[in-house]
Amino acid sequence: MPVLTIANTKGGCGKTTIATSLAAALAGEGCDVGLLDADPNGGAHRWATTTYTGPTVASYAEPDKDRLADLLPLLADRHALLIADTAGFGNLAATICMVGADAVLIPVSPGEGDVVEARKTVGFVEGLARTARRPIPARIVPNRIRRGTTLSRHTLAEIEALSLPRLQTALSEAVAYGELGFSGALPLAGSAAAEIAALVAELRSQGWLPVPVNA
Asked: Which CATH class is domain 3-205?
């Protein structure tokens, strides 16, 4: 079944927020979703096992590269969708999650450093795809975008100038994303709820997410 990996060699760009938001949204649709936390910090697994209050999300924590290489394909077969959250630095665990993915999402927050690292990550995924001799599509996800600000405009313009593949959906710096880590509840109204719904719809249009159970 599909494996969706969230990756960027730069930390602090919102990988865990996107991973947990997608997991919660899809579980709310009745999807059998697994969340694999390959980050030694374990933020996604901690959220799923101690904070999250919604429908079941099966969560696994495995930052060890050797065990991860065996675990990832097993979990991919077990769940309708496996979402893999990775560390914010280049390591073999993140590489395993990317080479085992059906698609890779690369969050980018406003800032020159984020764009530079995103470009490196896109190139790395392309190299992995050539080595694996199969397509591994990668898409930039603009994150923490403050609409109307010069920094956000420059960031989006630079992504376009570099011809980096990106999703049309962009996530804002809505407070609700931060609250998700504390309340465990997916936002049901407001800009964050609309953005998460748009992200799910766009990923589904790419064929990277299973259809809703009640569809």
From this structure: alpha beta
